[in-house]
Amino acid sequence: MPFQPARLGLHFEIMTLAATEDSSRSFLMTKQILKPTQNCDACNSPMVLSPCAASKSADLYIWKCGRPCKKTKNIRSGSVLSGSNLPFQHFLLLIYYFSSKSLTNVEISAYTGITEKSVGVWRATNKYQYSSLHSATSADTISHLSFPPKLLS
């Protein structure tokens, strides 16, 4: 049976936020799931979010230090997505679908394109986190979830 969202407004809002990697990244930064600012580990100077080639980062953005040290940092550094290759769009969809307790890992995998094994790892690691999204009135609820670091993709 196809997924029937309980709340079409929230479903539409999540689908709009997850439409592109840029919109997903912006939302995750606005809600501070991805850090909106970073300081350089070497010189403690503020870093600048800069576009980069796909060969440097699959996210197409990295943090760059503006000082002479020129250090860089992954955009995911210090977030729940640190160490994960899960696209930002998939992350938003994943936590949304987890909020529907009736969906199995197989169904979520089919809806998102994330492997069934990865869905299982994310669900098992964070199963207590997603129930609050189920009764959400808007996507703002996502910002209140907390996740352990270093989850697998």
Task: Provide a descriptive summary of the structure in words.
Strands 1-2-3 form a 3-stranded antiparallel sheet, with no helix packed on it. It is mainly alpha-helical and 153 residues long. It is elongated. Helix 1 (8-17) runs antiparallel to helix 3 and helix 4 crosses helix 5 (116-126). Helix content is 35%, strand content 8%. It folds into 2 domains: 8-34 and 81-144, no CATH class; 35-75, no CATH class. Strand 2 and strand 3 form a beta hairpin. It has helices spanning 8-17, 21-30, 88-98, 105-112, 116-126, 131-134, and strands at residues 47-51, 61-65, 72-74.
Q: What is the number of independent domains? A: 2
Order of helices and strands: HHEEEHHHH
Radius of gyration: 16 Å
Question: Within the largest sheet, what's the order of strands?
Answer: 1-2-3
Gross geometry = elongated
Describe the largest sheet.
3 strands, antiparallel
Distance N to C terminus: 27 Å
**Which regions are unreliable across 5 or more consecutive residues at pLDDT < 50?**
130-141, 143-153
Q: What's the total count of β strands?
A: 3
Helix/strand-derived class?
mainly alpha
Alpha plus pi helix count: 6
Helix content: 25-40%
Which quaternary structure do these chains form?
single chain
Estimate the mean pLDDT confidence: 77
What percentage of the residues does DSSP assign to strands (E)?
Answer: 5-15%
